[in-house]
């Protein structure tokens, strides 16, 4: 045992209660109560302690930090009473401290040795509203006040968590400092303030109390402490590891898997003996009934990684497939000790080849099914012992649950992608399909003769339509194709010149005349006719010419092959201009699609609705909003106004981003933006043949007709098209929506994203449609704030 002053907390506090006052008075009271209630045979030790303390006090004064050595016998006696009269060896992490365990002054050698080995107090309290932190000692002080003076148990834990670091600053162990306040006394300096427990508990977080309210109600400087505490360190790595895994389980949906497994490895590290011990856990993902492995997750696995190394792409071998069907624990060591014995495994040779000295594989079973594989191994001797294996064994149920949750989350993400990207059954309408399917199953179960799948219909929904078109895309595409053809013809001319160096040949002269003929004819026919002629020319003329040229000019084979690679559908050389156009079109469509995804997220976050996109040379979309789609949420027409306003903002953002993208696209492309506002609600139904929603009923078909006929509509009595680059055109029928529309435009103008100029236009009559009007807005191309 040692008398030694060691600070246990690094937290500084301005409160005057710090460290309290060392005093034997609480210990006196305890001994006296023990004597009063005990039998005569039990009185000897307490009586001796009381008398001895009084003797020392008479000679050296009352207990304080400066006369500890005088009380060494009493301190030893407290240890003996606290621990055991039989086992007096200083093996336990035991000590006496100031009242709130800020400083230890007497304890076992093991205790002080542990404290000296990079043991760090762990701050576990959240920030107060003031920005300060509630320290562990302050929390313990409040706990004593509530329990001793108010008779109210706060259920707060009377321990402080410490973690031990290695030389690299990594956590390798956890210890809980358990505190016994039996010999601590607390007094109020003035009248106790009245406590309303209900108010203290108004906004609790991880505690029974709202600590912000507590610190404003109870002032610690109004209380004083005396006595001493008995503390013991208890190794709690397993408990804290379990707790930390449980906490990250709650955040699983927000994790990137690779970051998640990196964090998990750090959490497990304190249980592993030695830095060379490797932890590998991988969930058993299943795709279409076949195991699916992500190499970035399984790259540390002995069982899996070798297959990747050998095959580059993973192919499950029969041995592994059999193991996954019949999983079992595998233990391997090349130096069996402590009664641990190898299991016989078909993987022994693979494990041995890997250079591993000790290896443990535990299948993770959840609900009688394999959810994942846990592997622990080391290439150093004596790194995987009984204690480590026992600690890991206690984690197996939780790790099995974790693997199962990861696989379920993986499947959910796949389902979300399929639903959102590949099918029309979106989350907002999934409930209706479920309801219809359930009704159909009920009818089948009841042997109904009329069992059939009813139509999925949504009535009284408000449509929002928008279209972003790439200006003159057809003209640009056609021009690109013809430029590619022109390039190929030039290559043919160069080949003809090369072959003509050997003199005039009938084959060359005939083919050259044919090239001139096809080139001249293209100037007098339509593009569609040109395409037919070009394709026919390369198939019926160019291909036979090359084959014959190879025969007649064997010395020119290399030259012929050099040019031949440009003549057919080689995407690197033969279709350069078309590739340039298609790449630019793809990039501009990706830009548009991302902005529409943001717009859709805004809508779904406010009132879940149906959103569908259609890819053309550009993108057009329909949105359907109404209470029949989202019956669980009250509908207000104000949602429509809000969404129309956001629709215009979305179109303005697309215009800006397309404008700024011109400089980075392989080929400059520009976009036009069009919105149609339908004045009334419509009905829609799901068409199984086309797997999409369409308008329902003859009265609503007019909405679809207008959509199809306004993309190239002109301003009345002019030849000017309504849709223009860097502008947003909004088509409407009824003036009754104009007031709301202008309020939205005014709010958007105040943002700075559109110019002040607003054009009010009348549109030409188109087949079956008259009286269409439009507003045209100019986007502020200098706008910078995309937040």
What does this 3D model show about the protein?
With 787 residues, this protein is of the alpha+beta class. The chain is built from 23 helices and 24 strands. It folds into four domains: 234 residues, no CATH class; 207 residues, Beta-Lactamase; 94 residues; 200 residues, no CATH class. The strands form five sheets. Strands 16, 17, 18, 19, 20, 21, 22, 23 and 24 form a nine-stranded mixed β-sheet that branches. Strand 17 and strand 18 form a beta hairpin.
- Please work out how many helical segments DSSP would assign: 23
Number of strands: 24
Instruction: Please identify the structural class as seen in this structure.
Output: alpha+beta
Give the number of domains. Answer: 4
The biggest beta sheet is recorded as: 9 strands, mixed
Taking the alpha carbons of the first and last residues, their distance comes to 65 Å
Average predicted confidence as pLDDT: 80
Report the radius of gyration as a whole number of Å.
40 Å
Quick one: overall form? elongated
Low-confidence stretches: 125-131, 308-314
Helix content: 40-55%
Strand content: 15-25%
Q: Helices, strands, pairings?
A:
Elements: E1 2-7, H1 25-37, H2 44-60, H3 72-82, E2 94-97, E3 103-107, H4 109-115, E4 119-121, H5 136-149, E5 159-165, E6 171-180, E7 184-188, H6 197-200, H7 211-217, E8 223-227, E9 229-235, H8 237-250, H9 257-268, E10 278-283, E11 285-287, E12 290-292, H10 295-298, H11 302-311, H12 318-325, E13 330-333, H13 348-353, E14 358-366, E15 369-378, H14 386-422, H15 427-445, E16 457-470, H16 473-500, H17 506-521, H18 527-552, H19 557-564, H20 576-606, E17 610-616, E18 618-625, H21 638-661, E19 671-677, E20 682-687, E21 692-695, H22 701-709, E22 727-732, H23 738-751, E23 754-762, E24 773-779
Parallel strand pairs: 19-22
Antiparallel strand pairs: 1-3, 2-3, 2-9, 4-5, 5-6, 6-9, 7-8, 10-15, 11-12, 13-14, 14-15, 16-18, 16-19, 16-20, 17-18, 20-21, 22-24, 23-24
Helix pairs in contact: 1-2, 8-9, 8-14, 16-17, 16-20, 17-18, 20-21, 21-23
